[in-house]
Amino acid sequence: MLAATGLRRSYPLPRGGEVVAVDDVSLTLARGRALGIVGESGSGKTTLARLLLAAERPDAGAVLLDGEPWSAPDERARRPRRRLVRLVPQDPLASADPRLAVEALLRDSASSAGRPARRDALVELLAQVRLGPEILGRRPRTLSGGQRQRVAIARALAAEPELLVCDEPVSALDVTVQAGILDLLRDLQTRRGLSLVLISHDLAVVRQVCDDVVVMREGRVVEQGPVETVWARPAHPFTRALLDAGR
Ligand SMILES: Nc1ncnc2c1ncn2[C@@H]1O[C@H](COP(=O)(O)OP(=O)(O)OP(=O)(O)O)[C@@H](O)[C@H]1O
């Protein structure tokens, strides 16, 4: 479904020079599979996600979505397929208008993708993320962290995307709430045939949801493969250190 080859993205530093956030990264994601991107803070995970979402343009390399150029310079060529891909950002709902209730947030997301936004469809959507209909009338700020993350996932799903990218979906949540969100993501992915990219600094989190993993360090991929193989037999010393830190 998604193929990236030789992606590079650098940013200028204020006093000259540049930081290479993503450096020669190649990866593939098959339809209906879940790919984890793991690495420490500053390793380039969010930048890579933005490149995969075509929210940012690479300096070099390309992303193909269903075999077609996705990170193309021509925005018009991309627009018809933009709704197929949705992001659940690191700080969900932070940019949402605080006056809006959950119902309006879900409705806006659905209608922006030309999807039906009847109340019963929204109630059904909330049920999919294991929330009751009473949440529709609530404002995000009055919800718990776990409820907000579920609403953020529902908001992305309202557009009926084929690919969901989740940036650190559980890092702000305590462990028991984390387990519920990860289980939900896995369930949505298998039941809806959703393709998923999950970004985390924690390989144990990725392992609960993903089939494959890409390990990043300083913008580069140091290791990639089936998550169980990487977990059981990490080939790179950095992956071993990452594993030890999480255990
Ligand atoms: N818009 C930007 N302008 C300048 N530098 C940036 C920008 N975005 C990212 N960077 C730099 O690129 C590098 C990679 O950042 P990125 O946010 O992709 O890492 P990350 O692995 O997602 O980190 P974290 O887990 O802390 O979110 C960092 O050195 C960061 O400072």
From TrEMBL:
<dbReference type="GO" id="GO:0016887">
    <property type="term" value="F:ATP hydrolysis activity"/>
</dbReference>
<dbReference type="InterPro" id="IPR027417">
    <property type="entry name" value="P-loop_NTPase"/>
</dbReference>
<comment type="similarity">
    <text>Belongs to the ABC transporter superfamily.</text>
</comment>
<keyword id="KW-0067">ATP-binding</keyword>
<feature type="domain" description="ABC transporter">
    <location>
        <begin position="2"/>
        <end position="243"/>
    </location>
</feature>
<dbReference type="InterPro" id="IPR050319">
    <property type="entry name" value="ABC_transp_ATP-bind"/>
</dbReference>
<dbReference type="InterPro" id="IPR017871">
    <property type="entry name" value="ABC_transporter-like_CS"/>
</dbReference>
<dbReference type="GO" id="GO:0055085">
    <property type="term" value="P:transmembrane transport"/>
</dbReference>
<dbReference type="InterPro" id="IPR003593">
    <property type="entry name" value="AAA+_ATPase"/>
</dbReference>
<dbReference type="GO" id="GO:0005524">
    <property type="term" value="F:ATP binding"/>
</dbReference>
<dbReference type="InterPro" id="IPR003439">
    <property type="entry name" value="ABC_transporter-like_ATP-bd"/>
</dbReference>
<protein>
    <recommendedName>
        <fullName>ABC transporter domain-containing protein</fullName>
    </recommendedName>
</protein>
<keyword id="KW-0813">Transport</keyword>
<keyword id="KW-0547">Nucleotide-binding</keyword>
<dbReference type="Pfam" id="PF00005">
    <property type="entry name" value="ABC_tran"/>
</dbReference>
